[in-house]
Amino acid sequence: MTATETQNRLIDRQFGDQAAAYLDSPVHAGGPDLACLTWRIAELQPGVAVDLGAGGGHVSYAMAPHAGRVLACDLSEKMLATVAETAAARGFAHVETHRADVHHLPFADASADFLASRYSAHHWTDLAAALKEARRVLKPGATAIFMDVVSPGAPLLDTHLQAVELLRDPSHVRDYALGEWLSAFAQAAFAIRHVETFRLRLDFAPWVARIGTAPERVAAIRTLQSDVADEVKAYFAIEEDGSFTLDTALIETAAA
Ligand SMILES: C[S@@+](CC[C@H](N)C(=O)[O-])C[C@H]1O[C@@H](n2cnc3c(N)ncnc32)[C@H](O)[C@@H]1O
Questions:
Q1: Which H helix or E strand runs over 88?
Q2: Ligand 1 atom index nearest CA of 58
């Protein structure tokens, strides 16, 4: 078994039983990044729009009123079943679900007019390879918008962030720093059009409940949060109950 097959199983296990939690999560159902995406796709009105790592489907639902077809891709069958059911309930018959790994998309070259991905790339084992695959399915000049948690980059802060993320969810790979994103975009022939960063406060109890973090791992996260340098506590605005604030980014690109 390759490392990627194992990782994909881990992702499926982590997310499969949490589909309802991700559909209902306020962090995922709203936010300024989703508002920016909605505004951009409303302007562009693409024919075919792809959602990579659809999860509970909030990007697909935001795109659906403005796109001819929406292709919601995810590794998890249960997430996709939730997306299919919710899209139907909202009257979005043109939202299709596809079980697919972002590193190997089941779509023809230059077949999509728009692509978006949100809060999924930190699970991808090879960011540059996944971006190359996204680039392959897009028409030249098409817009692609990527949104995710980003690492502040400085080793002291980066190590803390990746450690708490991995304890919370063993399928976590990496919150990439903006520099890592930019280098992966360059390798995949995407031109950067616009970068916007946000701060996102995560309420501790729902943050761990959403992915079903085991009690001993929750305790380990709390220990890490109390045993850190003041700079780390201040940067992530770590609160008494473990709630904290991190950075997210929206990167708008054009397929070269
Ligand atoms: C946090 S959820 C996504 C949230 C959703 N995009 C939103 O904005 O509400 C992350 C999703 O990425 C999916 N995922 C992770 N790695 C993937 C991969 N390599 N290929 C396809 N989907 C993947 C997971 O199965 C999970 O459903």
A1: helix 77-89
A2: 9
Is the Cβ atom of 174 under 6 angstroms away from ligand 1? no
User: Which residues lie across from 244 on neighbouring strands?
Assistant: 202
Quick: pLDDT tens for 74-86: 999 999 999 999 9
Query: Which two structure tokens, joined as six digits, stand for 108?
Result: 């023809």
Task: Evaluate if residue 116 carries a pLDDT over 70.
Answer: yes
**Ligand 1 pocket, residue 74 CB under 6 Å:** yes
> What is the reported pLDDT for 2?
61
> How far apart are alpha carbons 205 and 213 in whole angstroms?
10
Q: Which residues of 113-136 are buried (b: 16+ CB within 10 A; e: fewer)?
A: bbbbbbbbbbbbbebebbbbbbbb
Closest ligand 1 atom, CA of 76? 25
Q: Give the whole-angstrom CA distance, residue 80 versus residue 16.
A: 9
Please tell me the residue having the least CA distance from ligand 1 atom 13.
53
Give domain limits for the chain: 3-151+171-201+246-255
pLDDT digits (tens, 9 = 90+) for 97-109: 999 999 999 999 9
Ligand 1 atom with the shortest distance to the CA of 8: 19
Q: Which of 22, 123, 211 to mutate to test the pocket of ligand 1 (most atoms within 8 A of CB)?
A: 123
Q: What is the CATH number of domain 3-151+171-201+246-255?
A: 3.40.50.150
Predicted TM-score of the model (pTM): 0.96
Q: Using CA positions, which residue lies closest to atom 12 of ligand 1?
A: 53
The predicted pLDDT at position 66 comes to: 98
Here the tokens at position 81 are: 């079943």
